[in-house]
Design brief:
By secondary structure, the protein is mainly beta. The chain contains one helix and 13 strands; from the N terminus they run E-E-E-E-E-E-E-E-E-H-E-E-E-E. The two termini are 32 Å apart.
Length: 140
């Protein structure tokens, strides 16, 4: 799981920081799971990232950057997580099979069998359709 943070100073992207660390909390039990090597890498343009290799697939995590050289509201910045599950889902949505049938579009994993998402299809007037699709909605 990769965490990314956008760090600013006086509202401008802050680059060149070498004193950024991360704190990570496992949501399910609120335990601190920060690894001993908590240093963060600069990506550029004020963006910093950390690859959390100890992440468990079925767990959610929250993280915060601590920037030693900054003060006030810019000292602590939330990290945004890019979980492997979300990335896999997006890959499946983009590369798997799609089929329009019975006024729905059905998305499948790359195996062409496992359904990962289904949406109802509507035209510009809100009528169910299989052609001239204007809107898609999650079935209720």
């Amino acid at each position: 799981m990769r965490f990314t943070a956008y760090i600013t100073e006086a509202g401008l992207p802050k680059t060149g920081l070498t004193n950024v660390t991360i704190s990570i909390i496992k949501v399910s039990d609120k335990s601190d799971v920060t690894p001993s090597d908590d240093s963060v890498d600069e990506v550029g343009l004020g963006l910093y990232s950390f690859n959390f290799s100890d992440a468990e697939d079925d767990e959610d995590y929250v993280a915060r950057a601590d920037i030693a050289s900054l003060t006030g509201s810019e000292k602590y910045v939330p990290f945004i997580s890019e979980s492997q599950g979300e990335i896999s889902f997006l890959k499946d949505m983009l590369s798997g099979r799609r089929r329009i049938t019975a006024n729905q579009i059905i998305y499948y994993k790359a195996d062409g069998v496992t359904v990962i998402a289904t949406f109802n299809l509507f035209d510009a007037n809100g009528a169910a359709t299989m052609t001239g699709v204007y809107d898609r909605q999650v079935p209720e």
